[in-house]
Design a protein that fits this description.
Blueprint: H1 2-16, H2 26-38, H3 43-61, H4 71-82, H5 97-116, H6 140-160, H7 165-192, E1 194-204, H8 220-236, E2 245-247, H9 261-273, E3 277-286, E4 289-297, E5 303-307, H10 321-327, E6 346-348, E7 351-353, E8 356-357, H11 364-371, E9 377-381, H12 391-406, E10 410-414, E11 420-422, E12 428-431, E13 438-447
Parallel strand pairs: 1-2, 2-3, 8-9, 9-10
Antiparallel strand pairs: 1-13, 3-4, 4-5, 6-7, 10-11, 11-12
Helix pairs in contact: 1-2, 1-3, 2-6, 3-4, 5-6, 6-7, 6-12, 8-9
């Protein structure tokens, strides 16, 4: 019973590492408790400890997934993610340097597996996503989210071993100071590779209702973003700093702007009112199936687009559809989207970028590929389907980590929030309140530095 309570506590502490609590320092405490429970345990005991730890971590972390689809899909997701932790049961564990390195390596391998499998994976809840305020975060640009997770787990275990605690402390301080020195050097290189500035405006237009039916009324979402943009152009755009790029979120145009004359007419009206380029998230209606796209309307009349490549399973397509529809009737309402195949770079004034749409920023490979050659990051998302849950805050935290990892100024724009600007260290420059129809403007510093 005591072991069960300790395992429950450890899993809950790891969940509290992420929003809404966002207490990064609880991750080492959680991992230390978990490892101690595994010590000297037999295979059977290690198995239930590992799986229960995962359940008590993922169930509260992913509770937002139950908001509108019910408890069963949420529990299936939480239990499915938890079973990856059963890999820890395969090995016997003791207090030794070799075992600490093995444990940290297995931890990040599990995260990699979750990111890729099954059905393209779901990399939510990786340790590195919660450690942007950790002293080890200096290493994000060098070793990424996976490397930061590895260091976090390794030093946690080193500090739990009384024989190594003093030496580990000195090594930790040395590592942190070295990381700080490396960051200073990177700052200097970024200063030498600046690429001008971009005056950007984010449009958080809102939705008629924050649930799965957010787009049930045709053009309702589009009109809210159109009116918010029009209000900004009439009342808020500073004459001394005219906007270079106006950015709408994912799904802001709920109908295909190339096939709907009324939407096209209103977009052209906005283009006449401003010299700014306009980037909008839209659903394209192709004969083979819909596509989730970002469309850039440039002031010179040209149009370019990026189609989301990394689709979200069960959100944008349904794997094992017959089974999924038996588990949740709502699966019948999900139309299979078609992924994009190309990674075009969009150019707006001095900005060069390939947007990350919604959960694409979860995947290391997609993020790295889309960010290559960019001088800023743009994350477009629609959080309306998750209401006032912690999902939006968790995703905004991931965007902060990506900004720091890639050392790029970042614009995050959502239909309902969180919408905001981030500097190239993941710091929040400005952020709009959730569930308000508003615009947010900032000057973004561009750079060509590649991590």
């Amino acid at each position: 019973m005591v072991n069960l309570l300790k395992t429950l506590l450890a899993g809950a502490l790891l969940s509290a590492t992420f929003p809404p609590l966002n207490l990064w320092f609880l991750a080492p405490i959680s991992i230390a408790i978990f490892y101690k429970e595994l010590l000297s345990a037999n295979f059977r005991k290690r198995s239930y400890i590992s799986i229960l730890y995962g359940i008590f971590f993922f169930a509260p972390l992913l509770h937002w997934s139950s908001i509108f689809v019910g408890a069963l899909p949420w529990l299936i997701l939480a239990f499915g993610e938890s079973f990856f932790f059963a890999i820890f049961a395969i090995f016997r564990w003791r207090q030794s340097l070799q075992h600490y390195f093995r444990f940290a390596a297995i931890w990040v391998l599990i995260e990699f597996a979750r990111e890729k499998f099954p059905f393209g994976g779901f990399g939510w809840g990786r340790i590195g996503f919660a450690q942007i305020d950790s002293p080890l975060s200096f290493y994000l640009p060098l070793i990424g989210v996976t490397g930061l997770g590895f260091l976090t787990v390794l030093f946690t275990l080193l500090f739990t071993d009384n024989r190594m605690k003093q030496k580990s402390f000195y090594v930790f301080i040395t590592i942190v100071l070295l990381g700080f020195a490396i960051e200073v050097k990177i700052d200097q290189r970024i200063g030498n590779e600046t690429d001008g500035t971009l005056q950007a405006t984010l449009i958080q237009g809102g939705v008629p209702e924050a649930n799965l039916n957010f787009n049930s009324v045709p053009m309702a979402v589009f009109n809210k973003h159109y009116l918010t943009t029009e209000k900004f152009l009439i009342n808020s755009e500073p004459k001394s700093k005219p906007t270079d790029l106006i950015i709408w979120p994912e799904n802001a145009s709920d109908l295909d702007p190339f096939k709907n004359p009324e939407i096209d007419r209103k977009i052209q009206l906005l283009r006449k009112q401003s010299s700014a380029d306009l980037l909008i998230g839209a659903v394209l209606d192709n004969s083979a199936g819909p596509q989730n796209a970002a469309i850039l309307y440039r002031s010179n009349g040209s149009i370019s687009r990026y189609v989301k490549r990394d689709l979200a399973p069960f959100g944008e397509y349904i794997p094992l559809r017959n089974l999924a529809e038996k588990i949740s009737p709502l699966a019948k309402n999900v139309t299979n989207f078609l992924p994009g195949e190309e990674k075009p770079q969009l150019v707006s004034k001095t900005a060069i970028f390939t947007p990350l749409i919604c959960f694409e920023l979860l995947d290391d490979q997609t993020t790295t590929e889309n960010a290559a050659g960019n001088n800023l990051l743009i994350s477009m998302t629609n959080n309306a389907t998750f209401g006032r849950s912690a999902e939006a805050a968790q995703q905004f935290l991931i965007a902060r980590v990506r900004a720091y990892e890639l050392r790029k100024a970042t614009a995050v724009v959502s239909t309902t929030g969180f919408t905001g600007f981030l500097n190239n260290k993941g710091g929040v420059v400005s952020k709009a309140n959730q569930f308000t129809s508003t615009s947010l403007s900032s000057q973004m510093n561009l750079n060509n530095y590649d991590t």
